[in-house]
Amino acid sequence: METGGSSTTAVRKLGLTPKSIIFQKFGKDALYTVEEVQDVAQSGCPGLAIPQKGPCLYRCSLQLPDFTVSSGIFKKKKDAEQSAAEKALEMLGIHPSTDDPSAEEACDKLIACVKYFFSNEFLSSLHPLSGHFRAALRRDDDLCGSVPTSVIAACDSKLCNICKLINPKVETNHFLLISYITSAAARLPEFVVTSEGQLSIRRKNSYPLEIIESSLFQQSDTVDSICITGMHIPCSVEKEVQPVTLNISSTEYYLDVIARKLGLADGNKVMISRTIGKASSEMRLYFAVPMSYLMDPSSDFVNVKVHIEGLLNSRASCFSGQDIYGDAILASIGYTWKSKDLFHEDITLQSYYRMLVNLMPSGVYKLSREAILAAELPVAFTTRTNWRGSFPREILGTFCRQHWLSEPVFSTSSIPSKASSETSRLDKKLKVSESVEQGKECVSGGGTATNDLKPVGSESAFKCEVKLFSKSQDLILECSPKEFYKKQSDSIQNASLKVLSWLNQYFKDPNMSSEKLHYSANSLDIRFYPENFFKKFSLYLYMLNIQQSDTQGGNFQRSNSMNTQNTMPENGVCCLSTGGPDSGVYPSNGCLLFISYSVSLVTEGGKMKELLESREEFEFEIGSGAVIPSVEAVVTQMSIGQSACFNTELPIQELILSAADDSARLIPLLLSEVCWLEYSISLLRTTEPPEDRMEQAFFSPPLSKQRVEYAVQHIRQSCATTLVDFGCGSGSLLDSLLDYPTSLEKVVGVDISLKSLSRAAKILHSKLSKNSDVVPYNDVKSAVLYDGSITVFDSRLRGFNIGTCLEVIEHMEEDEACNFGNIVLSYFQPRILIVSTPNYEYNVILQRSSLTSQEDDPDEKIQSQSCKFRNHDHKFEWTREQFNSWASELAARHNYSVEFSGVGGSVDIEPGFASQIAVFRSRLPPEEDNYPKDEDLAHNYKVIWEWDSNNQSRSSL
């Protein structure tokens, strides 16, 4: 291939930040001290009588030898540091140039850098490249002082940045970078000399003897030789990667040792990749200069051309993001900023295969969970609480860095309440359980997703677009999800997961047809650009053993020594054996499971059993696809305390070798023996999912939304002018009421949670303030939020037209719930009271408890099964009979009538409604005053926030 050409139109800034300039001038003498600043938060809700904690803010103090400066206040520490550095530059009278340097100016900078590298002062510096210069002085004969050009290109990032100003293509073409360095050396004939073929550069005149002696003998005492292990990566994908040992004497240049392993005469003919992995890593790929490598260091510096032909090493190229030709050696060795001694680390086969696995989106997640053979990239982002391992956004960022892409670009947008409420009836939320069943065709979750709308009652809704670019800013793909989420962070996480899910499909089957690839992309709201996409990822066809050979999947055998009746062929499970008594407690969709497990490689006849991976405690969410299908299929049939053992076919070879401690010993077995994986699992315990998560998995719209809509409908029909919401929480009902035309003039909320009241105040203020255009059709003239217990009377709430109490009483003790009923109907005396509470009998469906024994009669099981409460904070949950008895007796005692209904389920189908509702109506005439006169001054609640149409928000503190 041939690269080159003028690139003056693509010149980019050198990118020296104020902090970088300060470091160049003062080095370690510049001391930054960052402190957290306490600031009074602006809650966005005037009159809120609850202290608000704002986001963390930072201020930085920069101490220089002659003065100290302080920055302003910023949300990010790095911004505060840059601000302090910028102020210091102003005091020093330094004004960084904001103009982009031309290509010619960049060439001058490059020539100056090359000249500096061969200066006396650079030889004794702590720069990583200076270590190579000192080692080169120990080389024999004509090689003494000769530094390979590839070393200069690989070990100085500043030099690379300068060359990118000349031609951005050097980002992916290190041969072009070497050519620019060689051309710069050619402009210094009186100072440096290049070798024939321009493969190395040396200083024309020898260093002064005292400089050489001081540089070579100031290193700390080291052993006579070191022995490190690297990996030999053959160019042919048919050949296995093998460990290689490097024995390096303290008197020789390690690059010459690597050259001999590659069959080369000396290190000048070795090419070096950029570092792989962490920025501080010294892991690099070493390979021979292609025999056909030709360079024309023309007089026109900007238009340098190179021509390379050779056999591309696809595996090595994928690791480095650069073209690697011929066989390569992967080694972690080199010089660092920290010490003048040679740094080195061993690379094992296991670490090599872990690097391979880390190139896959699911691999990043598996490694973050330290469960390569059990974990899987989830199909849905449900909640931050239940997600385990690296979050989708973090995984996507890691994926982009591993593949030498630009950082992903996220663009979020929101819709106002008015727009969303007008469209809320057009579409329904896609349930998380449906997303899982459709196999990643549509990913939603977070408990707040809707299709092209936001839920009624939410202040705002967000969706996020993600774009991936190459380093040269070619657009590779863009994902534009239709779903909206209540939280901006949820929209980002879900959009990231969609991109990861699609990329994961491709990496698992890079040979999939174009039609299938486009179909899967469309189903995830992804548009990709084939030319740019395949240009970047086509090499990964050769990276993994995706297609199973006959020595792997085809040779899976069942053992006659185990019970094979309970097999699950659709999940690859065979020889399933379950032990332990049935405790009757089974996992339900959305709950967190805690298991212990071990995975072993077993050969036919049990001749060998090698433990690959084990965890004493591993947790995951049922129904989110966070483990491989075979594990989830088995554990969902187990009860707490039971154990299971089963066999599965082998996954791709790289997963096994990345999990095994002794990968080298397993490779011959995998190639010659009939093998399978044996899983042993114990179900330790389970944590039931939060009530809202459980409801989302079974109801669309969610049960909480159905309850609110039920109450809103009755409030509108009642023509009430005053309303009190007992246990208002974050104000979901009050918020929803403002989205509809009602006759309400005054709304009141009562709760004991200051955090919830604070949220409710912010939501109501945003809708009720005069400058708000999102509530065009309500006549509310006043709104008040109180801090207080609903079991205590407050005369200010007496005689309201309607009262609501949705899913509150179950959070009290039963006697408190009975007390509340008496107080509200005898003292508060609303004309109408709506009370909802969970139907305990419906829990068998929500918790799938009827699956505890498939041999029992389902109808009997529903009646006899003991279920858990839906929420850990519930003190009780009533059956339909218990609720009807409580409400009927209460109504008769206080001269009210009562009607029963509910939402979720049906009254005609067992076990009735999921949420049961009682509507109490006073039998007294509206004009009759039956209020207790001695309670007129009972003010037991504290006003947290108050609003009226004349004075707007105010606090009564």
From TrEMBL:
<dbReference type="InterPro" id="IPR040870">
    <property type="entry name" value="HEN1_dsRBD2"/>
</dbReference>
<keyword id="KW-0460">Magnesium</keyword>
<dbReference type="GO" id="GO:0030422">
    <property type="term" value="P:siRNA processing"/>
</dbReference>
<feature type="domain" description="DRBM">
    <location>
        <begin position="58"/>
        <end position="94"/>
    </location>
</feature>
<dbReference type="GO" id="GO:0003755">
    <property type="term" value="F:peptidyl-prolyl cis-trans isomerase activity"/>
</dbReference>
<protein>
    <recommendedName>
        <fullName>Small RNA 2'-O-methyltransferase</fullName>
        <ecNumber>2.1.1.386</ecNumber>
    </recommendedName>
</protein>
<dbReference type="GO" id="GO:0090486">
    <property type="term" value="F:small RNA 2'-O-methyltransferase activity"/>
</dbReference>
<dbReference type="InterPro" id="IPR014720">
    <property type="entry name" value="dsRBD_dom"/>
</dbReference>
<dbReference type="InterPro" id="IPR026610">
    <property type="entry name" value="Hen1"/>
</dbReference>
<keyword id="KW-0694">RNA-binding</keyword>
<dbReference type="GO" id="GO:0005634">
    <property type="term" value="C:nucleus"/>
</dbReference>
<dbReference type="GO" id="GO:0003723">
    <property type="term" value="F:RNA binding"/>
</dbReference>
<keyword id="KW-0489">Methyltransferase</keyword>
<keyword id="KW-0949">S-adenosyl-L-methionine</keyword>
<dbReference type="GO" id="GO:0005737">
    <property type="term" value="C:cytoplasm"/>
</dbReference>
<dbReference type="Pfam" id="PF17842">
    <property type="entry name" value="dsRBD2"/>
</dbReference>
<keyword id="KW-0943">RNA-mediated gene silencing</keyword>
<dbReference type="GO" id="GO:0046872">
    <property type="term" value="F:metal ion binding"/>
</dbReference>
<dbReference type="InterPro" id="IPR040813">
    <property type="entry name" value="Hen1_Lam_C"/>
</dbReference>
<dbReference type="Pfam" id="PF18441">
    <property type="entry name" value="Hen1_Lam_C"/>
</dbReference>
<dbReference type="GO" id="GO:0001510">
    <property type="term" value="P:RNA methylation"/>
</dbReference>
<keyword id="KW-0479">Metal-binding</keyword>
<comment type="similarity">
    <text>Belongs to the methyltransferase superfamily. HEN1 family.</text>
</comment>
<keyword id="KW-0808">Transferase</keyword>
<dbReference type="Pfam" id="PF21224">
    <property type="entry name" value="Hen1_LCD"/>
</dbReference>
<dbReference type="InterPro" id="IPR056755">
    <property type="entry name" value="DSRM_2"/>
</dbReference>
<dbReference type="Pfam" id="PF24995">
    <property type="entry name" value="DSRM_2"/>
</dbReference>
<dbReference type="InterPro" id="IPR029063">
    <property type="entry name" value="SAM-dependent_MTases_sf"/>
</dbReference>
<dbReference type="InterPro" id="IPR046357">
    <property type="entry name" value="PPIase_dom_sf"/>
</dbReference>
